[in-house]
């Protein structure tokens, strides 16, 4: 469960609009049939605990909650804070019921080593934000091969097995001070939010077009490694109403760009109609 606006709700697959650095409070509630547990494992409830751990795909940082014991009725709640400064990209949350102390009497076939996992559940959550999905770097474009009057550039790769969050990043031109201020962490006024929405829409459109151009290569595998370039691009085009579209001819380019714009808004990116 995720605490959102002072209310608990099921943890979604994506947290849209997450602000980098913002803490997340999550809780995992587990109920065990204590009698059946003793019969099937040969252990007592006092021997095990509930633990929640999480890993960020971009920072590779792994943390865990403190072990939480089960009450006599077989209930346990792990309520923990995920520190925002250590989060980014895709979070992998793992819940385990693990042995925390050896049983009083060792029996063949019964778990006896502390740390042994009796049950687990894994859930992935994407933190949706332009600056969280892609590392953002500010540079002066006049010192690079990039146009000095461009506001931003997305570094990409067509290596579908490469780690997405390690190869895709947004470059912001320092010369565009207004955009640089807008993407900085913190509250934004209406104009700054409009600039961020425009950036988000532009990046999303580029991702969608790239996915459509690589559609044949993406179709060569049913599943790509989690958080690989192939995985992200495949999910991007599958979620789009342009899934069956082909890259346009010059005559169709204007219509295609309009379709791209509509598809991006359909995916909830950029400025949304009010």
Structural commentary:
- This protein folds into two domains: 2-128, Immunoglobulin-like (Sandwich), CATH 2.60.40; 131-266, no CATH class.
- Helices cover 27% and strands 27% of the residues.
- It contains eight helices and 13 strands.
- The protein has helices at residues 34-41, 130-133, 164-167, 177-183, 190-213, 215-218, 229-238, 253-266, and strands at residues 2-4, 7-9, 14-16, 24-31, 48-56, 62-64, 68-69, 75-82, 90-99, 117-128, 136-139, 152-155, 169-173.
- Strands 3, 5, 6, 7, 9 and 10 form a six-stranded mixed β-sheet that branches.
- It starts with a strand and ends in an 8-residue tail after the last helix.
- 28% of the residues are buried.
- The mean pLDDT is 84.
Number of helix segments?
Answer: 8
Report the strand count: 13
| Residue fraction in strands | 25-35%
Major sheet characteristics: 6 strands, mixed
**What is the overall shape?**
elongated
Class per helix and strand makeup = alpha+beta
> What percent of the residues sit in helical stretches (DSSP H or I)?
25-40%
Element pattern in H and E: EEEEHEEEEEEHEEHEHHHHH
Model regions low in confidence, pLDDT < 50 over at least 5 residues: none
Quickly count the domains.
2
Features:
274 residues; Immunoglobulin-like; six-stranded mixed β-sheet; three-stranded mixed β-sheet
Overview in brief:
The chain has 274 residues and is of the alpha+beta class. The chain folds into 2 domains: 2-128, Immunoglobulin-like; 131-266, no CATH class.
Which helices and strands, and how do they pair?
Blueprint lengths: L1 E3 L2 E3 L4 E3 L7 E8 L2 H8 L6 E9 L5 E3 L3 E2 L5 E8 L7 E10 L17 E12 L1 H4 L2 E4 L12 E4 L8 H4 L1 E5 L3 H7 L6 H24 L1 H4 L10 H10 L14 H14 L8
Parallel strand pairs: 3-10, 11-13
Antiparallel strand pairs: 1-2, 4-8, 5-6, 5-7, 5-9, 9-10, 12-13
Helix pairs in contact: 4-5, 5-7, 5-8
């Amino acid at each position: 469960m995720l605490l959102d606006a002072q209310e608990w709700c099921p943890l979604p697959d994506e947290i849209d609009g997450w602000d980098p650095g913002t803490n997340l409070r999550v809780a995992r509630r587990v109920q065990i049939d204590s009698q059946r547990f003793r019969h099937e494992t040969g252990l007592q409830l006092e021997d095990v605990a509930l633990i929640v751990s999480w890993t960020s795909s971009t920072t590779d940082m792994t943390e865990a909650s403190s072990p939480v014991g089960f009450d006599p009725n077989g209930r346990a709640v792990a309520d923990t804070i995920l520190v925002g400064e250590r989060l980014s990209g895709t979070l992998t949350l793992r819940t385990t019921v693990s042995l925390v102390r050896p049983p009083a009497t060792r029996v063949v076939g019964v778990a006896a080593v502390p740390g042994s996992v009796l049950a687990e559940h894994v859930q992935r959550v994407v933190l949706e934000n332009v600056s969280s999905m892609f590392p953002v770097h500010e540079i002066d474009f006049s010192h690079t091969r990039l146009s000095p009057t461009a506001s931003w550039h997305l570094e990409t790769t067509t290596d579908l097995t490469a780690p997405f969050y390690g190869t895709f990043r947004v470059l912001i031109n320092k010369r565009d001070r207004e955009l640089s201020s807008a993407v900085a962490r913190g509250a934004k006024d209406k104009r700054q939010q409009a600039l961020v929405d425009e950036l988000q829409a532009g990046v999303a459109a580029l991702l969608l077009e790239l996915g459509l151009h690589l559609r044949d290569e993406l179709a060569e595998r049913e599943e790509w490694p989690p958080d690989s370039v192939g995985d992200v691009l495949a999910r991007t085009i599958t979620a789009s109403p342009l899934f069956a579209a082909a890259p346009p001819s010059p005559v169709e380019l204007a219509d295609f760009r309009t379709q791209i714009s509509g598809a991006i808004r359909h995916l909830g990116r950029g400025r949304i109609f009010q």
